[in-house]
Amino acid sequence: MVDLVNRPPVASGAPAPAAAGGPTRPARRRRHPLVAARPWLLLGPALAVLAVLLLWPLVRVVLFSLQDYGLREIVSGEPNWIGLANYGEVFTDPTLYTVVLPNTVGFAVLAVAGTVALGTGVAVLMASLGPLWRTIVGSAIMVAWAMPAVTGTYVWIWIFDADRGIVNSTLQALGLQDDPVNWFTNRWTFYGIVLLNVIHHGFPFVAITILAGLLGVPKEMLEAAEVDGAGPWRRFFSIIVPSLRQVFAVVIILSTIWDFKVFAQVYLMPGGAGTNREALNLGVWSYVESFGQNRYGFGSAIAVLLTLVLLAITVVYVRTLLKEEEEL
Amino acid sequence: MSRRTRLAAFKAVLVALLLAFTLFPAFWMLSSAFDARAGSAGKGLLPQEFSLENFEYVLTEGGFDVFLRNSATVALVTVLASAVLALLASVAVARFRFRFRTAMLLMILIVQMVPLEALVIPLFVQVRDLQMLNTLLGLIIVYVALSLPFGIWMLRGFVAAVPKELEEAAYLDGASWGRMFRSVLLPLVMPGLVATSVFSFITAWNEFIFAMTLLGGATENYTVAIGLKQFFGEHSNDWGAIMAASTIITVPVMVFFVLVQRKLASGLVAGAVKG
Fold this sequence. Notes:
The complex is a heterodimer.
Chain A: H1 2-6, H2 10-13, H3 33-65, H4 71-76, H5 85-92, H6 94-127, H7 131-146, H8 149-159, H9 166-173, H10 187-216, H11 219-227, H12 232-243, H13 245-260, H14 264-267, H15 282-292, H16 296-324
Helix pairs in contact in A: 3-16, 5-16, 6-10, 6-13, 7-10, 8-10, 10-13, 13-16, 15-16
Chain B: H1 3-33, H2 53-59, H3 64-95, H4 101-111, H5 116-129, H6 136-161, H7 164-172, H8 177-206, H9 209-215, H10 224-227, H11 239-269
Helix pairs in contact in B: 1-11, 2-11, 3-6, 3-8, 4-6, 5-9, 6-8, 6-9, 7-8, 8-11
């Protein structure tokens, strides 16, 4: 199943074995101008869409970031260059260092660690279960995975709601707190809820992927290690982890990319749309400055920085993939 | 207690905890959606008063009948357009060797990672210049572009998996390239095309940031993802309605998701998992 999707096209480049003595290729395959142009004809429409709607906007966001670009510039279309002033402002803004970077980088580190740890644990647990329970657990985590980010976030907000949420009412019923707590005003509990939300949504992908890898580790190797007296922990870290290094690398990198750009999970929370400045992360800051304050140039500068960070992680990801497949 | 039963008991506890953690949000959503008094204090685990009232309200006065229609339109058009474009492009990169092919693939891979927050500013300006703010068409065009890179990336694998010999056989039988494409390649790639289409359907159905930005003022054109905002009041939120609407949004996604999940997972890891 897994292999079916992305089997590298090994055979497609190699010439077909030539029949003895006969012409090596059917006459039809002679290079004809139309044949040479065919890949480009096929690729053309998609390429045009990508160029106009993804590549040109990427160039434009960089251009905007070098301007004092506000509503006036949007309406008139006139450029208003100010050089690197927006970047200067970003890097001298104390919000960046006290709020935004910790909320982005610190959060991503915790979220990736939590997602990968939980996902690996669940994968190991699932691998040890019988077929019936493995299916039950697999379906349950599928439910968590399939929950859209928007509705999932609203459910978590409802669970932690200040007035009537089940967390507050349970804690009060147990006598652990006297008055309902507003979990969303404090920066730590705010991001605690985001963390719970993101891990809950993100661990199923890790679990399913690592489970697929686990089931591929040769049984003989594990049995041999057991015969040699290696305990379960030793077997896990000395055999399973090394043979799944590639899988772990991909899972960690993809999770990092996703957790760096959480947007809806923060923006939709009470106070997350800019009213609570303590809750800003890079993506939300960029959006709020652009569409809340009409400072599109400044917002673009923040967006460019976020993109550069993600691009750096992506380069690592692509190199990991390339190591596995000799050619794309 | 023997070592074996202790281990089994330990595992049973872990499974129970895992199921509770995984399923609680979905359970809580359903339980609140079917509860006529979901918003009252001290709501228990099960609905106090089981009813469909919240759903009725959401689908009539809440305007979700319109939002559902908008979302379905946007998602279906997006799926059709991106399926055609992605299929043609994936045949090009999987079946032909040409200059810049690897560069093209790398670009497609990298462009997927660009954060939407960076694209939303220039695309807002672009859609505004085209006078398509507040229209579904503007949103559809953006969604087609967003779902293309992943679609090409995934379909490429499916196309490459079709044995080349089948194509050669078709040529030997005198078929033209177009005939071969229709009668050999297309039927064999169909399962992959369905999986990819479901994925772009989910993307378009769930997308939030562009819908919010591009549809800003036009409530009648809202998609379901931003229509939820309707039920948030100044001082109190109508949680029963919010959860009923969330249920309506989530169910189609879950159905589709179960259908394609295997292919989705393997598409993302792209060859890293090898049995």
